[in-house]
Amino acid sequence: MTYMLELIEVVTEKKVQKFEHYKTLKCHELPLTNCSFNKNGDKFITGSYDQSCIIWDTETGNILHKLKSHKNVVYAISFNLPYGDKVATASFDTTAKVIIILRKLVMEY
After folding, report:
1. CATH number of the domain bearing residue 63
2. Cα 60 to the chain's mean position, in Å?
3. In b/e form, how buried is each residue of 60-75, taking b as 16+ CB within 10 angstroms?
4. pLDDT for 28-79, tens place per residue?
5. For residue 79, is it within any domain?
């Protein structure tokens, strides 16, 4: 019973969180459809109406890899957890791709 009261107190506490704008990154030619961070948060991937996916370095904002293998809008992207060495993408071109990231080499299947 004590645990439940503590939980309710935590849930009902109103904590003010402050967020700051960190960076604005532009590279896609058309609007984004989604964004996904890897588990460590040091990389993220964006998918776009321009049929591409971009893997970014979170800290620097540098492009690590630009993937242009889809022939239609990329509507779903995700890193594999917990390793983050693969990315899955899905497109309205009716294909799903698995991308293996090996340091500077990218292999698409």
Report:
1. 2.40.10
2. 16
3. eeeebbebebbeebbe
4. 889 999 999 999 899 999 999 999 999 999 999 999 889 898 999 999 999 9
5. yes
